Amino acid sequence: MAKQSLGYVELEWTCPFCNTRNPGRVKVCTNCGAPQPKDVKFHQAAEDKIVEDKEGLEMAQSGPDIYCPFCNTRNPGTAVKCSRCGGDLTGGEKRESGEVIGAQQTGRAPDITCEYCGTVNPATNTKCKNCGSPLGVTARPQPAAAAPVKMNPKFMIIGAIVLLLICGALSMFFLQGTRTESNIARVSNVNWKRSIVIMGYAPVTYSNWIDQIPQDAEVSSCSERERGRSSFPSDNSQQVCGTPYLVDQGSGFAEMVQDCEYIVYDDYCQYSVIELQPVGVINDTGTDMNPLWPETRLQQDQQLGERSETYQITFNVDGKDVVYETTNPDEYMQFTPGSSWELEINGFGSIVDIQPAP
Ligand SMILES: [Zn+2]
Ligand SMILES: [Zn+2]
Ligand SMILES: [Zn+2]
C-alpha cells in the first residue's frame, strides 16, 4: 500500500481552563489568554478544510513542535532558539506525532447545543451566539456496534431433539448392519462384463493466464481479469484508494492521507491442447462361465487403456433373488449354476459371507 498525501488540515485544541476550542496554530487561548499546556491533545476540527495559507502550510510541514527546556514555550519544529527566552532548543522535548486522529469527515460536524442557555449553534462556532459561553468539543456520532447474537431457547430445544433423532437413526443403522442370518442358497444365474478403455489423441480445453499457456496450444478466447495488487503502477493497472484519514503532525495540523494500491489486470484465456485421453470403451458380456476380453480394432494413434471386469452371481434364497457382485474372476468360477452355498445375509439384505453348503 502506498500512502498518498491530500494536503494538511488545521486541528483544534480545547483550553482546559475555560473549555474554549482554539485553532491548532494558536499558542494562547483566544478566550482566557492561558498558554497552551504541553500535554494538551489536538483533535479534529468541526470541519476538515485543506490549509491553503502560506503561514499555515509552513507550520504544518515544520514537524512536531518543540517545548523550550527553560520556559516551556511552544516553538515550531524548525526553530533553533526559543521565541520567548532565546534559549537553545537542542534538548527540548518534541510533541508526539504520527497518531491517526480520525477518518476524513466530508461535511460539517453536527450542531452543538450550549450547556448554559440551550441555544443550538453550528459546530464551527467556538462561542454561543446567544450567551457567549464557550461551546467545547463537538460530540461526533460513533459508529453503532453490532448487536451480539443471542441463542433463542426454542431453537436450542429443537436442535437437541434433532440431535437425539440422528443418534437413534445411527444406532438403528448399526444394528441392522451387524445382525445376520444364515441361509442355504442355490446359484440360479451368472453373468459377466469385461471392458477396455480406448485411448486416443483429442483436444482438451483449459484456462490460464496468457503467459502461462503452452506454445502449441490453440487459444480460443481471452478476457481481462484482476491478476493481483501492487504498490506500483504498471502498463495495465488501475488505482484504488481507501478513505482518507488524518495523521497528527504534532504542530497543530494533521496530514490528510489515503492508502492506495494498483489493481493489475491481465488476459485470462481459454485454450486447447491435443492430449492422449479416453475416447471410448468396448465391452463384452456373457451369461456363461467363460468370460472373455472384448476384441479390439484400434485406429492409428490409438492405444488400449484401463481394463475392468465385474461378475454377478444370483442366488435363490427361499424363492427370492439375492445378487452378489465381485471383480475376482477366480471367485466367479466357483459359482457354477445349480451349486449350493451357505450365505450370511445382514439386516439390509446384503451378503456378508459365502461358504460351501455343508
Ligand atoms: Zn481558555
Ligand atoms: Zn524559552
Ligand atoms: Zn449559550
> Mean pLDDT, nearest integer?
90
Enumerate how many helices there are, as a single number.
3
The shape, in one word, is: elongated
Quantity of strands, as a count: 18
Query: Could you say which structural class the secondary elements and strand pairing correspond to?
Result: mainly beta
Helix-strand string = EEEHEEEEEEHEEEEEEEHEE
Detail the poorly predicted runs: 139-147
The main sheet comes to: 11 strands, antiparallel
CATH class (first level) name of the domain at 180-194 and 284-295 and 305-356: Mainly Beta
- Share of helical residues: 10-25%
The second-level CATH architecture of the domain at 180-194 and 284-295 and 305-356 is: Beta Barrel
Q: Provide the list of bound ligands, each named once.
A: zinc ion
Give the DSSP E fraction (strand runs of 2 or more residues): 35-45%
CATH-derived topology of the domain at 180-194 and 284-295 and 305-356: OB fold (Dihydrolipoamide Acetyltransferase, E2P)
Radius of gyration: 43 Å
Termini Cα gap: 82 Å
Would you kindly provide a written description of the structure presented here, covering whatever features stand out?
The chain has 358 residues and is mainly β. Among the domains are: 180-194 and 284-295 and 305-356, OB fold (Dihydrolipoamide Acetyltransferase, E2P), CATH 2.40.50; 200-272, no CATH class. The protein is built from 3 helices and 18 strands. It has helices at 54-61, 153-178, 329-332; strands at residues 2-10, 12-14, 21-23, 66-67, 74-75, 93-94, 100-103, 112-113, 120-121, 180-209, 218-230, 237-241, 245-248, 253-286, 303-317, 320-326, 340-346, 351-356. A hairpin with a 6-residue loop joins strand 8 (112-113) and strand 9 (120-121). The longest helix has 26 residues, at 153-178. The radius of gyration is 43 Å and the shape is elongated. The two termini are 82 Å apart. One zinc ion (ZN) binds at residues 114, 116-117, 119, 128, 130-131, 133. One zinc ion binds at residues 15, 17-18, 20, 29, 31-32, 34.
